[in-house]
Amino acid sequence: MTEEQVILVDEKDNKIGLMPKMEAHEKALLHRAFSVFIFNDKKELMLQQRAAHKYHSPNLWTNTCCSHQRDGETNLKAGKRRLQEEMGFVTNLEETTSFIYKAPFENGLTEHEYDHIMIGYYNEKPNINQDEVANWKWMSLDAIKSDMHTNPQLYTAWFKIIFEKFYEFINVNK
Q1: Whole-number Å distance between alpha carbons of 120 and 111
Q2: Catalytic residue among 113, 132, 164, 168
Q3: Is 65 noted as a catalytic residue in this protein?
């Protein structure tokens, strides 16, 4: 099986090439990504705990799902694809904002991503793919914010960044 390719981009999200995912993370090159946030009618966010064998951030809690767009794939199509692959359902998504972040990991890899944030709504129990996801739960944004302050080591780097800098784009309690 060939390794998944990521879309290398400039700081304005213009495609400048393709590269195998691991190579892009080894070289810390800026590439396109997305983060999906699914809320229920109680305005709680569906969190996932990453599977234990993930190459970085294993067992950490994060937003509902995230990944990389494929060449030629829209952000919304990519978000729906990955939501189905990881959480076992699809729902309508809306793009809210995007930002660039860089997060080095202890294993020598670096996430350097142009991350597109999408929001959707769903009220059912997901059918998680245990190759990708260890567990899931609903939490209010206030409870996440409090727990993230008390236990930051339990959350992924990108989720903490989104929560700190882009809270207004994911806060459906407004």
Answers
A1: 24
A2: 113
A3: no
H or E stretch at 86: helix 75-87
Q: Which residue has the tokens 């699809």?
A: 90
Exposure class string for 40-52: b at 16+ Cβ within 10 A, else e: eeeebbbbbbbbe
**Close Cβ partners of 15 (under 8 Å, ≥ 6 residues apart):** 7, 8, 9, 32
CA distance 66 to 81: 10
Query: Encoding tokens for residue 71?
Result: 């060449």
Active site residue 26: no
Q: Rounded distance, CA 1 to CA 3, Å?
A: 6
The count of C-alpha atoms lying within 13 angstroms of the C-alpha of 135, restricted to the half-sphere facing its C-beta, is 8
- Regarding beta strands 15-20 and 5-9, do their DSSP bridges make them parallel or antiparallel, or are they unpaired? antiparallel
Q: Which two tokens stand for residue 9?
A: 């981009």
Structure-model confidence comparison of residues 88 and 4, the more confident one: 88
Model pLDDT for residues 83-123, shown as the tens digit of each residue: 999 999 999 999 999 999 998 888 888 999 999 999 999 99
Residue with tokens 């993930």: 54
Which of 65, 66, 86, 111 is an active site residue? 66
Residue 139: φ, ψ to 5°: -145, 145
Strand, helix or coil at 149?
Answer: helix
